[in-house]
Amino acid sequence: MENISEYWFHDYWRVLIVELSDRSIVSVDVYRDGWFWNTDSMKCIDGENYCVLYHKVSLDELSRVFGELSKYFISVEVVGIKAKDRLETVNVRYTVSGDKKLTYNDISELFYKSWVLIGCIFKDVEDIECKG
User: Fold this and answer.
1) Is the pLDDT of residue 1 over 70?
2) Beta partners for 124?
3) What pLDDT, on a 0 to 100 scale, did the predictor assign at position 12?
4) How many C-alpha atoms does 10 have within 13 Å on its Cβ side?
5) How far, in Å, CA of 98 to CA of 118, rounded?
6) For the chain, percent of residues with pLDDT exceeding 90
7) β-bridge mates for residue 81, sequence order
8) Nearest of 25, 33, 30, 27 to residue 13 by alpha carbon
9) Which among 11, 15, 35, 28 has a CA at the least distance from the CA of 126?
């Protein structure tokens, strides 16, 4: 388990990192009511009542939000859930090149800018502003 790290932000929000030999998978907890992206793929049970939704984020969008750090991203997807008629955005998942050893500052940037990526600003647990 030495290749798995957890970083908690504000007692409620987690960044989970799994380091593989050639890349790292970074999972960032976020929350936003609604799903505002094209669904690139979807995995469902019970027909289409309960689903996990995936949207691949474009390199242009990543560059706009992350700047220099984005050059290390292999892929990034926003993850949502569908439970009957309710849609929610719950996660941003990054695959980062093994050429980049993530520092705590990088991890903090991934956490806060993941909120920007989903159209929100995380100020505090009680103060999250989302557009649209």
Assistant:
1) no
2) 127
3) 84
4) 14
5) 25
6) 85
7) 52, 88
8) 30
9) 11
- Tokens 């996990």, residue? 52
Helix 104-117 × helix 59-66 angle, to 10°: 120
Q: What is the 3-state secondary structure (H, E, C) of the chain?
A: CCCEEEEEECCCEEEEEEECCCEEEEEEEEEEECCCCCCCEEEEECCCCEEEEEEECCHHHHHHHHHHHHHHEEEEEEEEEEECCEEEEEEEEEEEECCCCCCHHHHHHHHHHHHHHCCEEEEECCEEEECC
* Greater pLDDT, 132 or 27: 27
Name residue, tokens 């859930």: 81
CA angle 27, 41, 99 (to 5 degrees): 40
41: left (phi over 0), alpha (psi -120 to 50) or beta: beta
- What are the structure tokens assigned to 86, written together? 């309710």
Q: For the segment 22-55, what is each residue's pLDDT rounded down to a tens digit?
A: 999 999 999 999 999 999 999 999 888 999 999 9
Q: What is the mean pLDDT of residues 72-80?
A: 97
Q: What is the dihedral of CA 60, 33, 38, 51, to 10 degrees?
A: 130
